[in-house]
Write a structure and sequence with these properties.
This protein has about 500 residues and is of the alpha/beta class. The chain is built from 17 helices and 17 strands. It has helices at about 25-40, 115-135, 145-150, 150-165, 195-200, 215-220, 230-235, 245-250, 285-300, 325-335, 350-360, 375-385, 400-410, 420-425, 450-465, 465-480, 485-505; strands at about 10-15, 45-50, 60-75, 80-90, 90-100, 140-145, 170-175, 180-185, 210-215, 225-230, 255-260, 310-315, 340-345, 370, 390, 410-415, 440-445. Bound molecules: adenosine-5'-diphosphate. Adenosine-5'-diphosphate (ADP) binds next to helix 1, strand 12, strand 13, helix 12 and helix 13.
Length: about 500
């Protein structure tokens, strides 16, 4: 185990279900790695605890080895052994937990979407804390993420502080309030929590069903710091419309709640050094962007006859949140306007997946549209580089990373003004915003008319104001979306919480 003593910075341990690139479904994975790296660079000791999924990208883990320890953890009335692995991912030390449980919790070929997800992750949350206790870690901050590790907050105070793992303040980040981890109250008992005492309106009881508990609510109640991933989304979730049933809980804990805009990992997302690209390029030399456009067209069998035909990209999970009806509409509208469209997306929702498979088949041999319905990291990089515009017509968007990645690659975002999109995309034609901040095209109303307006304005600039467009591309590529400033905000929250704890323990 890594020693945690005698370091000047903080000792921060993230307990999470995702970490890019080894185990990533969406933005959460990017945040754990990006924030972790940024905090490490600032001199803090950062460690990560992850499940050891069978379907991880093992080639991205350095020096992976099994430790010569067995951590026993309670679940469903008995103790289960857990094998612990260590390795380094993107320079960050990671502990991987492999339960020796007959349920083969992390041997399912996918991260989520299993019938027993609640069991799998409440189990994981408990072993993660058991590991820290066993290893005699003395972290200053335990940072848990989303419902999967929200159990850490109540487990820490109810079970682990009494056992002596008591050095930490708990930070919980909710990356999306749509996913709250609810279950019948009795299921909480499996991981050793006291369902009877926790199933109360001021603790973990779901706000709309008094026989169910809500793990995200538990983390809001029992953490010292609660964050979400953009300032606008932090406001939205405090309203009945945006809070998905948790607005009252968030409002009664508003003093510890704040929205911090995510950054992106500017090493992993750097067109000047990106090995997935045909040609690397930078803001001062954007010619290479055209070569990537050609490469993508060839790869996908799209027409290359006109170099200046605008290429519109979309990279997304296909779920209602992302505005699937507008994405579908965008394909047709782009073609009508004389553009090309590339979609990279996959859906965990069977009827949406089927619907897009039909559209994919319809455009199978089309010279200007292609749908690739899978998760493909390498292809995503090429699409960001090749496309002239990227659409993000989300119904709600806690932060959104694709608009920032797109800008870094000189692809201009066309985004709906919601959540983190509202904090990062500013309309080129909006006179109320200082010129230097304007970087994309936005719309407010989540309907075809609203979207069309933004898309048509973008096409108009692209087709008729080539020089202005080029300047916009160069400007967007130069915006600083790194984790630096966001990580400083987390650092400040951590420091304040640690200081408060020390002051309280002295008095
Ligand atoms: P969310 O977390 O809701 O999925 P974000 O915009 O925060 O949305 O993060 C999405 C991340 O996942 C980005 O890094 C994006 O490039 C990536 N991504 C989404 N869909 C795919 C896909 N089909 N293939 C490759 N990468 C994808």
């Amino acid at each position: 185990f890594t020693s945690s003593s005698t370091r000047p910075g903080l000792h921060i341990i993230h307990i999470a279900a995702e970490m890019a690139p080894v185990a990533k479904v969406g933005g959460l994975g990017d945040v754990v790695t990006g924030l972790g790296k940024a905090l490490q660079k600032k001199g803090h000791l950062v460690e990560i605890v992850l499940p050891k999924y069978d379907c991880m990208q093992y080639e991205s883990i350095k020096d992976m080895k099994a430790l010569d320890v067995v951590v026993e953890s309670y679940f469903d009335g008995r103790l289960y052994k857990n094998k612990i692995w260590t390795g380094t991912v993107e320079g960050l030390p990671v502990y991987f937990i492999e339960p020796q449980h007959p349920g083969k919790f992390f041997g399912r070929g996918q991260l989520y979407g299993e019938h027993d997800d609640f069991k799998r992750f409440s189990f994981f949350s408990r072993v993660a804390l058991e590991l820290l206790l066993h290893a005699e870690k003395k972290p200053d901050i335990i940072h848990c993420h989303d419902w999967q590790t929200a159990f850490v907050a109540p487990l820490y105070w109810d079970l682990y502080v009494p056992k002596g793992l008591d050095s930490a303040r708990i930070c919980f980040t909710c990356h999306n309030f749509e996913y709250q981890g609810t279950a019948p109250a009795s299921e909480l008992t499996s991981c050793g929590l006291d369902a009877y005492h926790l199933n109360r309106p001021d603790r973990m009881q779901d706000n709309s069903a008094n026989d169910r508990i809500n793990s995200v609510k538990g983390a809001i109640v029992f953490s010292n710091i609660v964050t979400t991933v953009s300032p606008t989304y932090a406001q939205e979730v405090r309203t009945a419309q945006g809070g998905k049933g948790l607005h009252a809980t968030i409002n009664s804990h508003s003093k510890k709640f704040v929205g911090i805009l995510n950054g992106i990992d500017t090493d992993a997302w750097n067109p000047a050094s990106d090995n997935f690209l045909k040609v690397q390029y930078s803001a001062s030399d954007i010619e290479g962007k055209l070569e990537n456009k050609e490469a993508l067209r060839r790869l996908l069998g799209l027409s290359s006859s006109e170099i200046r035909r605008p290429l519109v990209g979309c990279i997304t999970r296909l779920v209602p949140q992302k505005g699937v009806h507008l994405i579908r509409h965008a394909i047709y509208r782009t073609l009508e306007l004389g553009g090309q469209f590339v979609l990279l997306g996959s859906s965990p929702v069977p009827h949406i997946q089927r619907e897009f498979e039909d559209i994919r088949n319809h455009f199978q041999n089309h010279e200007h549209a292609r749908l690739v319905l899978k998760y493909d990291e390498a292809l995503s990089h090429l699409i960001y580089a090749a496309s002239d515009m990227l659409i993000i017509p989300s119904i709600f968007e806690p932060c959104g990373l694709t608009q920032m990645i797109a800008m870094r690659y000189g692809s201009i975002p066309i985004a709906r003004k919601t959540g983190g999109l509202n904090d990062s995309v500013f309309d080129v034609d909006d006179d109320t915003i200082p010129d230097q901040f304007r970087n994309g095209f936005t719309f407010v109303t989540a309907d075809e008319q609203g979207f069309n307006n933004a898309l048509e304005r973008a096409f108009n600039y692209y087709m008729n104001k080539a020089e202005t467009w080029k300047e916009l591309v160069q400007k967007d590529m130069s915006i600083d979306f790194s984790w630096d400033s966001s990580a400083s905000q987390y650092e400040e929250l951590y420091n304040r919480a640690v200081l408060r704890a020390r002051t309280a323990s002295r008095s």
